[in-house]
């Protein structure tokens, strides 16, 4: 279901709003927005999983061979995360499996 945004008494689709604010899909500004949005979502997912596991950032860092400050930066969207580190966090830190799909 597509969300709609009202602007100046005009209803726009969510995609139209993003097109207007950040440019069309594939433009540099839209790509930058989408990368930041995905980074935010990933950070929130990791925070939620850590909370469910009842672990501190320090405990997660110890389990995964990283530093607490790095876990904090990831959770706050201030650090790029390598795929190998993401796998370690999910699989060693949370004892879960990480799967990807491309749409």
Give your account of this protein's structure.
This protein is elongated. It has a two-stranded antiparallel ribbon. It has helices at 14-22, 28-52, 57-64, 68-75, 83-93, and strands at residues 4-7, 10-13. A hairpin with a 2-residue loop joins strand 1 (4-7) and strand 2 (10-13). Helix 3 crosses helix 4. The protein has a single domain, classed as Orthogonal Bundle (434 Repressor (Amino-terminal Domain)). It is mainly alpha-helical and 103 residues long. The model has no long low-confidence stretch (mean pLDDT 90).
Would you identify the regions where 5 or more consecutive residues have pLDDT less than 50? none
Q: What CATH architecture do you see? A: Orthogonal Bundle
Query: What is the string of helix and strand elements?
Result: EEHHHHH
CATH superfamily: lambda repressor-like DNA-binding domains
Distance between the termini: 17 Å
Q: Strand portion, in percent?
A: 5-15%
- Anisotropy-based shape: elongated
How many separate helices? 5
Q: Any idea what the radius of gyration is? A: 17 Å
Task: Give the secondary structure arrangement, pairings included.
Elements: E1 4-7, E2 10-13, H1 14-22, H2 28-52, H3 57-64, H4 68-75, H5 83-93
Antiparallel strand pairs: 1-2
Helix pairs in contact: 3-4, 3-5
Please give a quick description of this structure.
This protein has 103 residues and is mainly alpha-helical. The chain has helices at 14-22, 28-52, 57-64, 68-75, 83-93; strands at 4-7, 10-13. It contains 5 helices and 2 strands, in the order ββααααα.
